[in-house]
C-alpha cells in the first residue's frame, strides 16, 4: 500500500536480502535456539517524503493510512508496518517545513499508539551512500525482529488451539482426519522455515495418535 511505484522498486532487493540473515528463535522446551529465515512480509505501507511538508501528510497521506488500517482491521490483520522514506532533497518553497522527525512523530501519534516500532524511517534507499546502507540494514533488522515476534505469537496460539482440539478426541463427532489436516498444516509451516526436525515431530505425534485410534477400535471401544 502507499507509494506502489516506490514499493515495486524496493521489493526485489528486500525479498533477496530479508532471508539472508537468520534470526535466533528460542522455544520454551528447547535447550538451544533455532535459526530461522523469513521470506514473507508484513502488510507494508510505504510513503515517500522528499521534504517535511506537513500539507502532504494532512491532505493525502493521513487519509491513505487511515483507509489502509481500516482494511487491515476488517481482515483481523495485526501484522503491519509503516515505512517512511525520506530524502535529503530540499523544496524551494520552505513554508510548512518542520524539524526532520515531525512527520514521523505525527504518524506514530496518529496510528501507532504504544507500538512506535510499527513506524520506521528509510533514508534514500535507492541512493548509494553509507548513510542509506546503514538505514537499510536497520530496516531489515527491525523487519526480521517483528516477523519473529509475530511468528512466535501466532504459532503459540495455533498450538494452543490444536492442543484444545486434541483434548476433545473422546467427544462424539471428533474426527481424526480433520485433526490430521490441522497438525499437518503446522508441519508444513515448519518445513517452509526449514525446521525439518520440528516438522517430523508433528508426524510422529500423529502416528502415535493414529496407533491409539487403531488399538481402541480393535478393542471395540471408542476410537479415541
Automatic annotation (TrEMBL):
GO terms for cellular component: cytosol; TRAPPII protein complex. It comes from the Eukaryota. One of its GO terms (biological process) is intra-Golgi vesicle-mediated transport. Pfam families: TRAPPC10_1st (PF23036). Residues 52-220 form the TRAPPC10/Trs130 N-terminal domain. This is Trafficking protein particle complex subunit 10.
Amino acid at each position: 500500500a502507499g507509494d506502489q511505484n516506490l514499493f515495486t522498486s524496493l521489493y526485489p532487493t528486500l525479498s533477496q536480502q530479508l532471508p539472508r540473515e537468520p534470526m535466533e528463535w528460542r522455544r520454551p522446551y528447547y535447550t538451544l535456539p533455532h535459526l530461522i529465515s523469513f521470506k514473507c512480509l508484513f502488510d507494508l505501507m510505504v510513503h515517500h517524503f522528499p521534504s517535511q511538508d506537513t500539507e502532504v501528510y494532512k491532505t493525502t497521506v493521513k487519509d491513505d493510512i487511515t483507509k489502509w488500517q481500516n482494511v487491515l482491521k476488517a481482515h483481523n490483520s495485526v501484522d503491519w508496518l509503516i515505512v517512511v522514506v525520506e530524502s535529503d532533497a530540499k523544496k524551494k518553497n520552505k513554508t510548512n517545513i518542520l524539524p526532520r522527525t515531525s512527520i514521523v512523530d505525527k504518524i506514530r501519534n496518529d496510528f501507532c499508539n504504544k507500538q512506535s516500532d510499527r513506524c520506521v524511517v528509510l533514508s534514500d534507499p535507492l541512493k548509494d551512500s553509507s548513510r542509506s546502507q546503514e538505514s537499510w540494514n536497520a530496516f531489515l533488522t527491525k523487519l526480521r525482529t517483528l516477523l519473529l515476534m509475530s511468528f512466535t505469537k501466532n504459532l503459540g496460539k495455533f498450538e494452543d488451539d490444536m492442543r484444545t482440539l486434541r483434548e476433545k478426541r473422546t467427544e462424539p463427532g471428533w474426527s481424526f482426519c480433520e485433526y490430521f489436516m490441522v497438525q499437518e498444516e503446522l508441519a508444513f509451516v515448519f518445513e517452509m522455515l526449514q525446521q525439518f526436525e520440528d516438522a517430523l515431530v508433528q508426524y510422529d505425534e500423529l502416528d502415535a495418535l493414529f496407533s491409539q485410534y487403531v488399538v481402541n477400535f480393535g478393542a471395540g471401544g471408542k476410537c479415541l
